[in-house]
Design a protein that fits this description.
Elements lengths: L2 H8 L4 H8 L6 E4 L1 H7 L9 E4 L3 H10 L3 E6 L4 E6 L2 E7 L1 E6 L4 E5 L3 H6 L8 E3 L5 E3 L3 H7 L8 H7 L2 H13 L6 H9 L9 H12 L4 H10 L4 H4 L5 H13 L6 H9 L3 H11 L3 H9 L11 H11 L1 H15 L6 H12 L9 H5 L7 H16 L9 H11 L1
Parallel strand pairs: 2-5
Antiparallel strand pairs: 1-2, 1-8, 3-4, 4-5, 6-7, 8-9
Helix pairs in contact: 8-10, 8-11, 11-13, 13-14, 13-18, 14-18, 15-16, 17-18, 18-19, 21-22
């Protein structure tokens, strides 16, 4: 085996055995797609490893079980069996040809022609195969494209897009993650011509591709190209604020923060709560994602607030929401990345240990209150007074509580 194959196999103890099981006795099996592409561009073997094979799904299942692996028919209608080998999953898919497509899904026929299997894939860099002996098989020029950062459709771009309109978004997602320079002109022109097909896609599929795009390394530049081509608004359901998105991405990088898809989506399309609600519906976000997006629409902390006010804001909102709103407000302010006031605000969000309200119901019951609405109201007023006083320790709370209770009498 070459070093290339060893790099892919070393981190996955079961992969060599699985290839041995599938490759032989009249059948061939090769690593395909993203794992090969990522190895070529120096990204190692961090993601999933997919396998293409001439064996039918039934034969894949038989061989896997005979070897002691678990086989799950996760996409059997498209020829995919997920094999669990030594604790790790591998999608094993029989070579295919598209029989019929409608822009959303394809009917496929199984085959044994590697070149035909490559021709039905989307981009040249995704149609690369690696044998268990380390031989790179490239029918479409994908190696050169991957190394050069060219995201190029296989064959006729219009036809590839008409087969599945999600490929418009995949074009921009892969360009944002792997491309150099502008989007391939032929691919971009075909995407513009096929833009009406975006409306035919399920919102769940659009969401999945868009959230991946938003966190890619060149997301800002790519979104600007999408916007200029008139392809961003049809995806979001409204025009996007690409300038704020770009500044937020720069801030995250400068502050050492991981790219965050929901926060970036908020920068791109949320000014008011109604924007968040509409965007969550358009993209069919999860409940957690939608709630977080809505939370981005409220007032934001600013450097103009005193430190006491900033901490009160942080206590009430929690660290995640405070950080989200502060970063987006920072981006929209146009202030320099190293602005001292905004950086101090972000530091508070990161470093200040948010205290817990030190009083419990028992403390108020011991002072003569009885269970019921009045108890809850007194506790809430006491908490607000504690915040206003600057979060004093428990031993300094007696006067504060006495004042609250005196107001009740």
């Amino acid at each position: 085996m070459t070093r290339a194959t060893h790099e892919l196999i070393d981190a996955r103890p079961g992969l060599a055995r699985l290839l041995d099981v599938l490759d032989g006795e009249g059948e061939e099996a090769r690593i395909v797609g993203g794992a090969v592409r990522d190895w070529l561009v120096g990204r190692g073997a961090r993601g999933d490893v997919d396998i293409a094979t001439t064996a039918t799904p039934d034969e894949v299942t038989r061989r896997a079980k005979a070897a002691g692996f678990k086989a799950i028919p996760t996409g059997i209608e498209h020829g995919t069996v997920t094999v669990i080998a030594e604790g790790l999953p591998y999608e094993v898919t029989t070579l295919r040809q598209d029989v019929e497509t409608d822009g959303r899904r394809a009917q496929v026929a199984f085959g044994r022609d590697w070149r035909a299997d490559a021709a039905r894939r989307d981009f040249t860099m995704n149609a690369l195969y690696l044998t268990r002996d380390g031989e790179l098989i490239d029918f479409t020029g994908g190696e050169a494209d991957a190394r050069a950062g060219r995201v190029r459709f296989i064959g006729d771009a219009d036809r590839r897009i008409a087969e599945d309109y999600l490929r418009i978004l995949r074009l921009f997602r892969f360009h944002a993650g792997y491309g150099h320079g502008p989007v391939d002109p032929e691919a971009l022109a075909a995407a513009v011509r096929g833009r009406d097909g975006l409306a035919r896609l399920s919102r769940e599929r659009v969401r999945a591709e868009l959230l991946k795009l938003l966190t890619a390394s060149r997301a800002a530049e790519t979104l600007a190209e999408m916007d200029a081509a008139g392809l961003l608004a049809p995806v979001l359901g409204e025009p996007g604020d690409v300038a704020t998105f770009a500044r937020l991405a720069a801030l995250e990088a400068a502050l050492g923060l991981a790219p965050d898809a929901v926060r970036r989506l908020g920068a791109l399309g949320v000014r008011e709560e109604a924007d968040a609600v509409a965007l969550a519906e358009t993209l069919r976000l999860s409940r957690a994602e939608a709630a977080r997006l809505v939370a981005l629409a409220g007032p934001a902390p600013t450097p103009g607030m005193c430190e006491k006010g900033q901490k009160a804001f942080l206590y009430r909102m929690g660290r995640e929401r405070f950080t989200d709103r502060a970063l987006i407000a920072f981006a929209r302010s146009g202030a320099a990345v190293d602005d001292a006031g905004w950086r101090a605000l972000i530091d508070i969000a990161r470093d200040w240990p948010i205290p817990r309200f030190p009083l419990k119901a028992a403390d108020f019951l011991a002072r003569g209150l009885t269970p019921g609405p009045a108890l809850g109201a007194a506790m809430k007023r006491a908490e607000e007074a504690w915040i206003e006083a600057g979060f004093p320790q428990r031993d300094a709370l007696d006067p504060l509580v006495a004042t609250v209770l005196a107001d009740d009498r």
